[in-house]
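Service request form, structural biology core

Requester: graduate student, group of Dr. S.
Request type: structure prediction, single chain
Budget code: on file
Notes: please return the result as structure tokens.

Sequence provided:
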Amino acid sequence: MLPNPDGKFGRFYDRFLGNRVILFFYPSSTEPHALDELLAFNAQREALAAAGARVVAVSRDSAVENARVAAAHGLKLTLFSDPAGAITGGYGAARDGACTCYVLDRNQRVLDVIAGGGDHANRALARLIAHAPPATPARTIGAQAPVLVLPNVVDPALCSWSIAAWQADHEEGAVRQRAGNLATDEARTRVIDHSMKKRLDHRPDDALDAALRDTVMSRIGPEIYKAFQFRVVAAERFCIGAYEAGRGDYFQPHRDNTTERTANRRFAVTLNLNDAYSGGGVRFTEFSDDVYRPPAGGALIFSCSLLHEALPVIEGTRFAALTFMFGAGDVPPPPA
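Core staff response, request fulfilled:
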């Protein structure tokens, strides 16, 4: 919590909801270059608002100084005072007197960072336009699976790395089948079963797996806690799968936690790595016939108890990185 120009404390997380945010850190309005940046943001506030963004500026100036500067220059920006530098330092911003700008999405996740230099207002506006979501009309939702769909989870470079790793080495994806009527994992063996699943899989090396797991823990873990009040602490080793139209790949309706080995899985995570395909997607037929398809770099997260299926790709190849997440006390199984 930081004080506003009127001296009242405000909580950033509670105050700015449902809009994109430009979080601008500057050392002090007494610095000419910083004041110029504030004035530029003030001049661009209508264009920024049209792009769905609100500007929040944070400095080490006192609330009294912020009030004076706002009145003197007619600033219509939200100014927060961080005299101890606790928030500013936590962001690693405004070092050596430089200004730093964070572009946040509607969920207050960082889309981009503009560090150093000048002209932050125009640069931030350009980034907002570049990251603008597709213009689609709002829908009235009558039935929906209890899932999370998050864009901008995986960076393009990590998507490309994952696809290249799959292209270098992959094999037919297997499933576990029972021996006899026993349901224990000791009685299950990995077999190719095209009546259930047809997919080509790659098991990433330690470096790629670590990069993917770091991504889901830092970018998806907090979202699961916010949406479901469940704290995830670990992720299973990744699999990179490809559904090819030419092969007619698919994964029939199934749940992800129905065996002794998988019973402690809590959430399934699908990271879509590309957009160059038609068809595909995931369907949850217990709730509706809707198909869920995050954009490239986006994630689909859902409880492992939900019945779901991966639909066939009609054209091209769909690449996805797949894992499962666990809570405290749940022990991820060894690699299959």
